[in-house]
Write a structure and sequence with these properties.
single chain, Alpha/beta knot, alpha/beta, 23% strand
């Protein structure tokens, strides 16, 4: 299975990058993973979201399964996420997760997404959201493989 995680902006703090790298390393044993950091728009508000959406949507293929991360999305348990990933995995589909920048995601991205997923009902900094997503993807694959990482 191929997974891509698009995120807008870079982790300039250095706090989250080591964790993201560790989960990327772990995931590389079960899926082909690509992490893509898109440049934040220099604009603000709706113009920033539109510019970032255009950059992101231009990188997608029509067959890609898009998952938009948004606090207004569906809340899954770890087991539900694993079960959701089973279908695109069994079909050999490319699943693309997208995390918006400071302004969030444009409606065009949410409209294109097959799933809008909430990692939390609370707003998370997008760099932290990337780390949480990576851990949950790793957890989902351990669930699917019956490995002991997930205990719940």
């Amino acid at each position: 299975m191929k997974l891509t995680v698009f995120s807008v902006g870079k982790d300039r703090s250095g706090l989250f990058a080591p964790g993201v790298a560790e989960y990327a390393r772990r995931l590389s044993h079960v899926a082909k993973l690509e992490l893509v950091e898109l440049t934040e728009s220099k604009r603000s508000g709706a113009a920033a979201k539109a510019a970032e959406a255009q950059a992101l949507l231009g990188k997608l293929k029509p067959t890609d399964v898009l998952v938009a991360l948004d606090e207004r999305g569906k809340a899954f348990t770890s087991v539900q996420l694993a079960k959701w990933l089973e279908q695109p995995q069994s079909q050999g589909r490319h699943v693309v997760f997208v995390i918006g920048g400071d302004e969030g995601l444009d409606e065009a991205v949410r409209a294109r997404a097959q799933l809008t997923l909430a990692l939390s009902a609370m707003t998370l900094p997008h760099r932290l959201a990337r780390l949480v997503l990576m851990e949950q993807l790793y957890r989902a694959f351990t669930i699917l493989r019956g490995e002991p990482y997930h205990k719940g």
